Amino acid sequence: MGADDILASEPEITGGHYTGGITTPMISHGKADAVQAHAARLGYDLDSCHAYGDDASDEPFMERTGHPVVVGHPKESFATKSSQLGWHLIPVT
Q: pLDDT digit string (tens) for 52-73?
């Protein structure tokens, strides 16, 4: 992928076995908090960062960056809100 870092949901492990649960969900505000903490650790200015998302659950982390971009064909409510916020849209065909 060419990525230096990847943030992902963390599986729950009990007694050395995967439980099927998740300890750190990477969605909505959990994703936003993880992105903000990661950026702070690395000294990144989120105002100069780009964020890409396709769903309303991505909105919390996207709004913490200076350059949010909606990709694909989002649901109407998210498309409307992101358009009102002036976010760029990259449609996927």
A: 999 999 999 999 999 999 999 9
Q: How far apart are CA 17 and CA 92, in angstroms?
A: 39
78/85 Cα distance (integer angstroms):
10
| pTM for this model (two decimals) | 0.82
User: Confidence band (pLDDT; 50, 70, 90) for 93?
Assistant: confident
Residue owning tokens 């913490």: 64
d(CA 13, CA 21): 8
Which among 49, 44, 46, 69 is positioned nearest to 59, based on CA atoms? Answer: 69
- Please give the distance of CA 5 from its chain centroid, rounded to a whole number: 13
Measured over the CA atoms of residue 54, residue 82, residue 80 and residue 58, the dihedral's sign is positive
Structure tokens at 7: 């943030």
- Give residue limits of the domains in the chain: 50-93
